[in-house]
Structure to design on (511 residues):
C-alpha cells in the first residue's frame, strides 16, 4: 500500500509559510479570523456545484447534512450580526471535482470587507497575493469580461444570444455538443477553452463585470444599455485562483437567486437542495454593504512551488485520503 | 447497451463515438469555480489509429465499447485473412487486412501478439517490442568492418526492410525493435 504523502518536505514548509503570511496579513489589517460549521443542514443550490451529503444514523431516523462547498452563507450571517471584517481558512468539499487542478477536498480562504467596493477588494487581493507570491511581476492585468469577448470574437457577452454563442462554440471548440447548454454554460465553455489559455503566464489577471447569467451572489448594476454583475475573478497565468463579489445584500433578491438556482437544478434534472433559511433570515435582518472573495489556497501553493498538479501540493489527496 | 459517464473517464477507457471504437489517451477535468464542468479528452480511434481532441460536458454519457486486448499466437496468412490463436483455449480469430496493415511485416508464426478484439473481431494487433528474425536477403558481410554507423539494407523473414551493420550476414538471426524498425543486435544464440 502506498501510504506515503504526495508532498515534499519543502512543499509542506511552503504551505505552513503561506498560512502564516496570510494570518499575519489579516492580523495587521485588523480583520477577524472566524470559524463556521463544515457540516450544515443546508446545501449549495448552485446547479454547477454539488455538495457531498453526509447521513447521521439515529435509532429511529436519520439526518441528512451537507459538507459546505464554501463558508459563504454562515459568514454572511456573522456580517449581519455586526462582526465587521472577517476571514476564514477552511477545508471545503465539492463532489466529483477531480483532476490536475481539482481535488474534491480543498482549502479555501474567504474574506469579507464591510463598506468596501469590489474594486477596492481586487486591490487588496493583489496586495495579499504579492506577499505570498513575491516573484510576481508588478502590474496585474485588469480586463472586463466584455472586453475579453469583444477582442477575441467581437461578441458582446452581455447581449449575445444563445444562437450566437452556440455558433462560436461550434467553430472554436472541438466536438462539443451544445445540446442542453444554457447561456451560462456556453459562456463558461468559451472563456475556459478559448480565452483563458491566452492569459499571460506568471501574471495576475483580474476579470470583472460579468454577464448577469454569471452573477451568482453578486450585486447587479444597471448601465446605460444592459445590467452587469459586479463580480470578479483572479487568475495567475491560466489558473483560476479566486472569485469575488460586490455582495448582493437585498434580501428579496437573495431569496430569488436561491429559488432560481433550484429551478435551474430542475431544468438540468438535478436533485434540488434545501435552501439555507438561516442565511435568508439574516439577509432579511440586513447584511451590511460589503465585498467578499474566496481564494483556493492549494492553487496558490501550486504557484508558489511550481507544481503542475494539485495532487503534488496536498499531503494526501482524494485517492490517498 | 452499457453507457459510461464522463465521471468514469480515465486513460485506457474504451467507448464508441460515431460508430467507431476509441480509447482515451488523456483526460483533463476543466471547471470554473462557479460554472459548467467539462472533460477535455484526447482519444485514439482504434480502427485508424488517429488521435483527436473532444470536449464533453460533465455528466454526458457515451456508449461503452466491448473492446478486449488478448494475447494470441500468430498462425498463418491465407491471402485473405491473417489467423491468430488464443494459446490457452486454442480459439482462432481471423483478422482482415485493415487490422494488420501496420504490422504485417512483423508477423512471425508462433510469436505472441496482443490482439485487440472489438465485438469479438480483431481490430488491431500489436507485436512484441523486440523480435528476433532471420535475415533472408542482404549483401555479403565485410569481414572486420566495424565502422561506427555504417549500414546496409536487409530483408528479414517476415518481409520487413531494415538497415543492418555491414558485418551482418544472410541467414543470421537479429534482434529488432518493432516500434522503430531498428536493428539492435545479433540474436544471442545465432
Amino acid at each position: 500500500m502506498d501510504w506515503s504523502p504526495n508532498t515534499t518536505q519543502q512543499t509542506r514548509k511552503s504551505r505552513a509559510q503561506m498560512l502564516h503570511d496570510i494570518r499575519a496579513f489579516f492580523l495587521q489589517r485588523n480583520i477577524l479570523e472566524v470559524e463556521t460549521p463544515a457540516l450544515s443542514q443546508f446545501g449549495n443550490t448552485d446547479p454547477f456545484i454539488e455538495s457531498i451529503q453526509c447521513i447521521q444514523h439515529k435509532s429511529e431516523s436519520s439526518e441528512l447534512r451537507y459538507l459546505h462547498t464554501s463558508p459563504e452563507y454562515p459568514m454572511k450571517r456573522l456580517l449581519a450580526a455586526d462582526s465587521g471584517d472577517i476571514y476564514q481558512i477552511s477545508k471545503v468539499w465539492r463532489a466529483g471535482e477531480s483532476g490536475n487542478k481539482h481535488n474534491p477536498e480543498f482549502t479555501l480562504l474567504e474574506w469579507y470587507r464591510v463598506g468596501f467596493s469590489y474594486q477596492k477588494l481586487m486591490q487588496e487581493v493583489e496586495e495579499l497575493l504579492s506577499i505570498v507570491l513575491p516573484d510576481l511581476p508588478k502590474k496585474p492585468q485588469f480586463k472586463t469580461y466584455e472586453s475579453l469577448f469583444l477582442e477575441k470574437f467581437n461578441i458582446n457577452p452581455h447581449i449575445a444570444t444563445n444562437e450566437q454563442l452556440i455558433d462560436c462554440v461550434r467553430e472554436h471548440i472541438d466536438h462539443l455538443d451544445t445540446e442542453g447548454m444554457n447561456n451560462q454554460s456556453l459562456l463558461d465553455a468559451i472563456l475556459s477553452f478559448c480565452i483563458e489559455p491566452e492569459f499571460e503566464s506568471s501574471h495576475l489577471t483580474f476579470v470583472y463585470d460579468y454577464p448577469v447569467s454569471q452573477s451568482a451572489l453578486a450585486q447587479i448594476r444597471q448601465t446605460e444599455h444592459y445590467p452587469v454583475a459586479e463580480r470578479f475573478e483572479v487568475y495567475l497565468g491560466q489558473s483560476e485562483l479566486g472569485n469575488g463579489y460586490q455582495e448582493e445584500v437585498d434580501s428579496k433578491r437573495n431569496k430569488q437567486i436561491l429559488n432560481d438556482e433550484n429551478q435551474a437544478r430542475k431544468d438540468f434534472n438535478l436533485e434540488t437542495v434545501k435552501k439555507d433559511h438561516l442565511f435568508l433570515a439574516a439577509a432579511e435582518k440586513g447584511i451590511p454593504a460589503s465585498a467578499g472573495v474566496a481564494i483556493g489556497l492549494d492553487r496558490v501553493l501550486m504557484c508558489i512551488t511550481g507544481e503542475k498538479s494539485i495532487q503534488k501540493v496536498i499531503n494526501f489527496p482524494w485517492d490517498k485520503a | 447497451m452499457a453507457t459510461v459517464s464522463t465521471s468514469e473517464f480515465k486513460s485506457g477507457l474504451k467507448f464508441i463515438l460515431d460508430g467507431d471504437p476509441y480509447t482515451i489517451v488523456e483526460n483533463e477535468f476543466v471547471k470554473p469555480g462557479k460554472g459548467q464542468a467539462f472533460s477535455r479528452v484526447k482519444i485514439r480511434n482504434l480502427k485508424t489509429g488517429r488521435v483527436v481532441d473532444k470536449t464533453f460536458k460533465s455528466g454526458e454519457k457515451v456508449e461503452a465499447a466491448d473492446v478486449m486486448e488478448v494475447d494470441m499466437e500468430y498462425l498463418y496468412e491465407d491471402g485473405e485473412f491473417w489467423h491468430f490463436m488464443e494459446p490457452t483455449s486454442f480459439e482462432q480469430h481471423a483478422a482482415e487486412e485493415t487490422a494488420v496493415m501496420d504490422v504485417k511485416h512483423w508477423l512471425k508464426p508462433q510469436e505472441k501478439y496482443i490482439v485487440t478484439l472489438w465485438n469479438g473481431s480483431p481490430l488491431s494487433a500489436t507485436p512484441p517490442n523486440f523480435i528476433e528474425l532471420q535475415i533472408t536477403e542482404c549483401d555479403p558481410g565485410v569481414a572486420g568492418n566495424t565502422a561506427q554507423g555504417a549500414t546496409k539494407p536487409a530483408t528479414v523473414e517476415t518481409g520487413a526492410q531494415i538497415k543492418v551493420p555491414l558485418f551482418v550476414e544472410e541467414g543470421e538471426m537479429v534482434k529488432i525493435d518493432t516500434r522503430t524498425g531498428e536493428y539492435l543486435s545479433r540474436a544471442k544464440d545465432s
Q: What stands out?
A: Residues 97-100 of chain B form the longest helix (4 residues).
